[in-house]
Design a protein that fits this description.
It is a single chain. The protein is α+β, with helices and mostly antiparallel strands and 245 residues long. The strands form two sheets. Strands 2-3-4-6-5 form a five-stranded mixed β-barrel. Helix 7 crosses helix 8. The longest helix is centred in the last third of the chain and has 23 residues. It is elongated and about 75 Å long.
Amino acid sequence: MRPALLNPLFALVTSLSGVGPRQDKLLRYLLDRSETPRLVDLLLHLPTGVIDRRARPKIRDAVPGTVVTLEVTIDRHRPPPPGRSRAPFLVHASDDTGDVLLTYFRGKREYLEKLLPVGEKRYVSGTAQMFDGTLQMVHPDRVVDEEGLSKLAMIEPVYPLTEGLALGSLRRAIALALQKLPALPEWISPEVLRRCDFPPLAEALRRVHVPIDPIDILPEKRFWSRLAFDELLAGQLALALVRAQ
């Protein structure tokens, strides 16, 4: 019989805010479950990489092909010419070292004028590219003001997905599931914890899903290794119980 302490981990993912029937169907497929997945299934869906937004160069020093976060002033908007709906909506921005083009395909004028007001300072994060000798960022991943920058995650995990499930939706669901983690008693011996430098299980899950450094999600590092050890130990204990019966 499952200890009551573990019950929060076995709550249905549909108990999370924002996870409805459509997300339930997508998560069943993603997590290979015939029924609605549990929070533990979601928490054990681990990232395969990260997006590192910590690089904060001036426009002049941005390296094409890398993810950068730029502090810019919005100079002007250039909507597509009449009759050319496939042409991009261009937003010209700059800092004291140069210019950058923020490029949006099928961008809505009202939305972009509100998101990127002329004369205002904004922080844009995405992949830098070169176009006709000018730095360009196509569909920036993040556009925030000064207040938004303080809340912006500079290292974001990337997960395996399935068609129709957005990365942001999955991240939000995992963040809510992390809040439900109970305070679990330690089941690994102190000697093994010391020798392997393992963190507590809850800390390992949080650091893999909310990394502070890109290396936090590497399988050979202490956080992922702790999760792998738990999985191996659980499997061995289950086999031992079967043999004992």
